[in-house]
Amino acid sequence: MSFAIAAQAQEQVASTSNDSGQTLRQLSLEELGRIDVTSASRHAEPVGEAAAAVTVITADDIRRAGITTLPDALRLVTGMDVARVNGQTWGVSARGFLTAAGNKLVVLIDGRNVYTPLFSGTFWDQQDLILTDIDRIEVIRGPAGALWGANAVNGVINVITKSASETQGAMVHVDAGSPIGQIEARYGGSAGANADYRIYGKARYLRPLEFAANGASALDEVQSQQAGFRYDRDDTSKRNSFTLQGDAYRGNGGLADRPDIDIAGANVLARIVHTQASGGQWQAQLYYDGTYRRVPRQYAEHRDTGNVDLQYRFPAIPNNDITAGGGVDFSRSATAATENFFFDPQTRTSALWNGFVQDDLSLVPNVVDVILGAKAEHNVYTGVEFQPTARLRWRPTTTRTFWAAISRAVRMPTRFDEDLRFTAGSPAVVLRGDPAFESENVVSTEVGYRRTAARFFSYDLTAFLNNYSDLRTLEPTPPIGIPIVLRNNMEGRTAGLEATAEFAPIPDWRLHAGYSLLSERFRFVNGSRDTTQGTNEHNDPRHQFSFRSFVDLPRETEFDAVLRAVGALTNPAVPGYAELTLRFAWGRNGPVELAIVGDNLLHDRHQEFQIGGPAESIQRSVFAQVTWRLAGQ
Questions:
Q1: N- to C-terminal Cα separation, the chain
Q2: Average pLDDT over residues 280-284
Q3: C-beta atoms surrounding 549 within 10 Å
Q4: Which helix (H) or strand (E) holds 36?
Q5: Phi-psi category of 549—alpha, beta or left, where left has phi over 0 and alpha has psi -120 to 50?
Q6: CB-count exposure of residue 553 (10 Å: 0-12, 13-18, 19+)
Q7: 106, 113, 105, 103: which is closest to 3 by C-alpha?
C-alpha cells in the first residue's frame, strides 16, 4: 500500500548506533526529541512536534536492550502489547485487541507493507532483518488510516533500515546461548561516485518453548535462512536519489502434533525521490513481494503482490504544506485445501486503489497548526472506504507541544472473513466466512502533551477514547448452531492513558519509564448469538509498566537493564507477570563488541498468551552476543 517517505530522512540523525558513529552520551534528551520521523505526516518532522502518539525505537535502544527479534523490539514502546504465543506466533497490538492474529496494525519494512490480506495481520516469524542495520522503528499508536490506509486502525509500525552508505565494510554478529543461535554477516562498499551497496546473509535457530502444564518441549523450534541486498545512489546535487533493495528467505517452524510449518518468500523494491528547486518533492515507489506458507492440517497459500505508489509534496499558498498521492496494490492469493480448511474460491485476485491528500495549515506560524487529511480506497469487498482525520497542534514554546486529533479508520475484510470454510475434518462446514462481511470501523479522539523540562528530563502524555462498530463476531446458525458464520455484530469502546518519562541524571546514564492503562467495554448488537463474549477478538492487560536503565561505564563498557510488568489476561486467563533483562557489554566503540545478556531472569518460565491447544511458556535464558566490525564501521 503506502510507503516510507523521503530517502533523505534515512540519512538524518535518527539512531544512536555504533554504525552511524553516534553513542548514547552524544545525544541529549533535547536532541532525541528532534529526531526526524516520517510516519506521522508522510514527511520528515521532529518527533517532539508530531501531532500524533509517536514513539521512536533507535538502533541503540535495540542494541542495548539485548533484542534478537523484531517483536521483542516492540516491547520497548509504551502502549504496545507484545505476547509470545508459541514458537512461531506472536500477538502484537496497540491499545487493545490483542490476539494471535492482531489485525489492526499496519506494518511496513522500508516501505513494503507486510500486513497479509489473507487473515488481517502479520506473520512475525517471516519478518526478519539484521537488527544492526535498522536505523529506527517508528510506531504510531492510534488511527492512521488517513495516511496509511485500511487496517491502520490502532496504529502503524514502520521499520526503516540504514542507507547503504551507513553500512560500509564488513560486519559479523553472532548470538549464541540457551534460547537462540544465529549468525549474521554483512558487507558494504562503494559502487562508484555517489553510489553504495550492501549484501547480507543470516541464519537463525530459536529453541522450542515448553508446555506450561508439565515443562515438556513444545517441539516448536524455528529455523530460517535469509539473504538480501541494498543499493543507494544520489546525484551530485543531492536532489535525486534512487534505492533498490531485496530479500529472499526460507524457513520452517516445528509443531508438536504434525509436520513443520514451511515458509518461503522473496521481494524487491525500487524507490526514486526528486527534490525540486522550488522545494517541492515527488517520489515513486514500486515493489513485488512473493510469499509461500504451508501449515499442515490448516492451509497453504502462495501470494504474489505488486504495488505502485506516487506522492508529491509541494509549496502551496503561504503557510500551507500539502502532500498528496495515490497508488494501487494488486494481489493474487492461491490456496490449497486441507482436510480441515479450504477457501472458496481457492484463488482470488484483488486490487486496492487509493488516493490521499493532507494539508498542514499554519494558523500562527510555528505556534498553531491545523492538519486536515483524508484517504479514499476502493477494495473488492466493500467498495469505497473514506478515512479522514483532523488534528490540532499548539507549540507555545520550543520545548512544549499540545496536540489533539479526531480520526476514522477501517479494517477492511479479508479472505478469512469472506472466503474461509472450516470443516474440522467432517463432511460439513462448521465455520465459514460471510460474503456480506463489512469493514470494521473506529472513530478515535486523542489528546497529547510533550515537554522537555530540561536537558536531562522529558515526558510524554497521551489519552484516547476509541469507539468501534461492526466488529467481528461468531454467529451460530439456528437451529443446531452449525455452521458458525462470521458477522459484524459487536460494538466496543476503549479508553486509555499512556505516559512515558526520560531522565538523564548524568551524561552517561539514561533512565526511561513507561506506563499504560487500558479500559475496554464491548457489547453485542443486532440480536447476536455469539457465545464467546468477544474474547476471540481481544484479550488485553489493563496495566503495563516498563523501566529501562542504560549506563555507560569506563573502558568502553555498558550495563543495561530492562524491566517490564504486564497485567493479567481474563479469557483465556493468563496470570500477570514481571520480567527482567540484564546486559553487560565490552568494546562499545571498538572493532569487537561482546555482550552477555540474561533474559526473563525473574522466573524459570512464564506464560504470556494462550489460544486453542495446550498453553506454552517462555523460559529464562542467558546468551552471548559478539559483533565484529572491519573497515568503515
A1: 34
A2: 92
A3: 17
A4: strand 36-37
A5: beta
A6: middle
A7: 113
What percentage of the chain reaches a pLDDT higher than 90? 77
Query: pTM for the full model?
Result: 0.93
pLDDT at 124: 93
Q: Which three cell numbers stand for residue 512?
A: 526511561
Three-class secondary structure assignment of 133-178? HEEEEEEEECCCHHHHCCCCCCEEEEEEECCHHHCCEEEEEEEEEC
Burial of 217 from C-beta contacts in 10 A (0-12 / 13-18 / 19+) = middle
Q: Are 373 and 388 in contact (CB under 8 A)?
A: yes
Residues 294-310 pLDDT 10s: 999 889 999 999 999 99
CA gap 33, 292 in Å, rounded = 41
Grade residue 4 by pLDDT with cuts at 50, 70 and 90: very low
Q: Report the distance separating Cα 410 and Cα 387, nearest Å.
A: 7
- Which has the closest alpha carbon to 486: 498, 471, 473, 501? 473
- Position 14 pLDDT exceeds 50: no
In angstroms, rounded to a whole number, what is the distance separating the alpha carbons of residues 546 and 516? 9
Indicate the pLDDT class of residue 455, thresholds 50, 70 and 90. Answer: confident
Distance CA 345, CA 303 (A): 14
pLDDT greater at residue 590 or residue 406: 406
Q: What is the DSSP letter of 1?
A: -
Q: Cell numbers 555507560 label which residue?
A: 552
CB-CB contact of 263 with 253 (8 Å): yes
Query: The cell 498528496 sits on which residue?
Result: 324
8 Å CB contact between 394 and 402:
yes
Band of residue 6 on the pLDDT scale cut at 50, 70, 90: very low
β-strands 484-506, 431-432: how paired?
parallel
Distance CA 436, CA 438 (A): 6
The three cell numbers locating residue 9: 530522512
Arithmetic mean of pLDDT, 344-357:
96
pLDDT of residue 11 exceeding 80, the answer is no
**Cell digits for 79?**
502502549
Report the alpha-carbon distance of residue 402 to residue 462 in Å, rounded. 10
Residue 72 dihedral angles phi and psi, to the nearest 5°: -60, -35
DSSP class of residue 63 equals: H
pLDDT tens-digit readout, 230-254:
999 998 777 899 999 999 999 999 9
Written as nine digits, the cell of 114 is 507486510
CB-based contact 464:143 (threshold 8 Å): no
Report residue 436 CA to chain centroid gap. 30
Q: How far is residue 607's CA from residue 621's CA, in Å, rounded to a whole number?
A: 15
Q: Report the percentage of the chain scoring pLDDT > 70.
A: 94
The reported pLDDT for the residue numbered 27 is 61
% helix, strand, coil for the chain, step of 5: 5, 60, 35
Rounded to 5°, angle at Cα 616 from 612 and 622: 155
Size of the chain, expressed as the number of residues it contains: 633
Q: Which three cell numbers stand for residue 158?
A: 514502520
Task: Please give the distance of CA 314 from its chain centroid, rounded to a whole number.
Answer: 29
> What number of CA atoms fall less than 13 Å from residue 589's CA on the CB side?
13
Rounded to whole angstroms, the Cα distance separating 231 from 14 reads 20
Position 595 scores a pLDDT of 98
SS3 category, 29:
helix
Cα atoms in the Cβ-side hemisphere of radius 13 Å centred on 399:
12
560: which 3 cell numbers? 543495561
User: For 161-185, what is the mean pLDDT?
Assistant: 95
User: Residue 436: its pLDDT value, please?
Assistant: 95
